[in-house]
Amino acid sequence: MRDLNVTAVHQHTNISEAFDLETLLGALYVLEGSSLGARILYVRAKELGLNEEFGARHLAGQAHSDGFRRFLEILDAAPNVDMNKVVEASRSAFGLAERAFQGNCECMMPRRSI
C-alpha cells in the first residue's frame, strides 16, 4: 500500500479466542486458498510492471506459497472433522474479509522509472 500511496484503514474486529478444530480449518481454507488467487493476480500485476520489489510484494509471497497443498494434507489427516462446521467457518472468514475490503479506495499509480 505504501508503494501505491494508499493509507491503510485499520479495522477493529472482534475475533473469538476460543477455536475448535473445524473453525481453525475453515479459517485456514480461506487464508491458504487465497494463495491460489494470488498466483493469477501476480501474473497480471507483473504485466502492469509490478513485482516482488514494488507494488506486488504481498502477491509474490502468496503466489510462491505451498500452504494450500499443506492445508489439504492437514485436512485429510484430521480425525472426525465435521465438514459442515468447516464450511460455516470458511463462510465466516470470507465474510470478515469482505467487510474489511468494502471501504472505497481510490489510488493513483505513482510514476517510477523502470
TrEMBL record:
CDD domains to which the protein is assigned, alphabetical: HemeO-bac
UniProt cross-references to Pfam families, sorted A to Z: Heme_oxygenase
Domain of life: Bacteria
Family annotation (InterPro entries): Haem_Oase-like (IPR016053), Haem_Oase-like_multi-hlx (IPR016084)
Record protein name field: Biliverdin-producing heme oxygenase
Source organism (scientific name): Rhizobium helianthi
